């Protein structure tokens, strides 16, 4: 019998339950997949807590990699026995196996393991659209990236280095600073003991940066705006500390700033664009130009413990559930 993590009410980590679940056979346009590894992402906590609504009871998780065990009618881009990865809806990646729509599946190339894929598909594609689609960054540009030692941060820093982009990264500890530096972060700001905007101005000769990539939210938005140069862009791509309150007048007072709150789903909705970003990501990883740092591995039954670690800021790099 297959098992899955499910929740019947929203709340803290303790609402998650390890349950037996039926799987069945795939229908038209569907596949049955046996998971090998499952990604742990901060977005999972948003669904569990109720910040992102989901009809209850619900499964959890939006990213995993594994092996296709059966395909339904009309499925042609993957076949039985293929190793695949995915990120996105519907919820339910926290499971040993599942039936799901075939559309989101991306076939893994040789050289990319299921464990690496589960650790990087969401984070890597997020880094891809942030660096390749959001703003026309060019070699020599300097940007500010919050949470530089996180899963997205470590991939982003390495990719930025390949593009000739300088990264000022914020971290909470010296341990995380060392990890970020090792992955290409050019300048470190310890946000707990330094004024972020003041240090950014020092590092940019008073000019500020053209783009701030902010995955933290409410706790960092003021410093992010103060770090931008005139007509700079604030990219709020996450809300780890809550949704930031944005006053349009503050955008004017800080230099006619622009702001966007992008979602990965809107940058991979078209299969051709998704496949182009994935191909670039997988190419960098397979060649060793980008290394995927898996610093935490958990059993799926230990999802409660994993969520507590994640929300307490005890994780670095990527985290996966290994089945």
TrEMBL record:
Residues 11-321 form the Enoyl reductase (ER) domain. Pfam families: ADH_N, ADH_zinc_N. GO terms for molecular function: mRNA 3'-UTR AU-rich region binding; NADPH binding; quinone reductase (NADPH) activity; zinc ion binding. Keywords: NADP, Oxidoreductase. It comes from the Bacteria. InterPro entries: ADH-like_C (IPR013149), ADH-like_N (IPR013154), ER (IPR020843), GroES-like_sf (IPR011032), NAD(P)-bd_dom_sf (IPR036291), QOR-like (IPR047618), Quin_OxRdtase/zeta-crystal_CS (IPR002364). GO terms for cellular component: cytosol. This is Alcohol dehydrogenase GroES-like domain-containing protein. It comes from Streptomyces atratus.
């Amino acid at each position: 019998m297959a098992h899955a993590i499910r929740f019947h009410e929203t709340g803290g980590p303790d609402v998650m339950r390890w349950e037996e679940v039926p799987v069945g056979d795939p229908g038209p346009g569907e596949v049955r997949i046996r998971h090998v590894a499952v990604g742990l992402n901060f977005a999972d906590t948003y669904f569990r807590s109720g910040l992102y609504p989901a009809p209850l009871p619900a499964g959890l998780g939006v990213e995993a990699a594994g092996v296709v065990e059966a395909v339904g009618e009309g499925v042609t881009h993957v076949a039985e026995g293929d190793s695949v990865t995915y990120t996105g809806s519907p919820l339910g990646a926290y499971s040993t196996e599942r039936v799901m729509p075939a559309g989101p599946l991306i076939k893994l190339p040789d050289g990319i393991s299921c464990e690496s894929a589960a650790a990087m598909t969401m984070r890597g594609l997020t880094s891809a659209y942030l660096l390749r689609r959001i703003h026309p960054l060019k070699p020599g540009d300097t940007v500010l990236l919050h949470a530089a030692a996180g899963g997205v941060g470590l991939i982003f820093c390495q990719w930025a280095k390949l593009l000739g982009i300088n990264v000022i990264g914020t971290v909470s500890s010296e341990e995380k600073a060392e990890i970020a530096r090792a992955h290409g972060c050019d300048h470190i700001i310890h946000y707990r003991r330094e004024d972020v905007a003041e240090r950014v101005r020092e590092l940019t000769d008073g000019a500020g940066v053209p783009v701030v990539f902010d995955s933290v939210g409410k706790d960092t938005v003021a410093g992010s705006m103060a770090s931008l140069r005139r007509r700079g862009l604030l990219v709020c791509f996450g809300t780890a500390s809550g949704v930031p309150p944005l006053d349009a007048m503050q955008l004017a007072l800080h230099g006619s700033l622009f702001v966007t709150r992008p979602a990965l789903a809107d940058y991979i909705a078209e299969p051709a664009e998704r496949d182009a970003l994935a191909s670039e990501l997988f190419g960098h990883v397979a060649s060793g130009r980008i290394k995927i740092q898996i610093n935490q591995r958990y059993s799926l039954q230990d999802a409660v413990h994993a969520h507590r670690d994640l929300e307490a800021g005890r994780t670095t790099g990527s985290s996966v559930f290994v089945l």
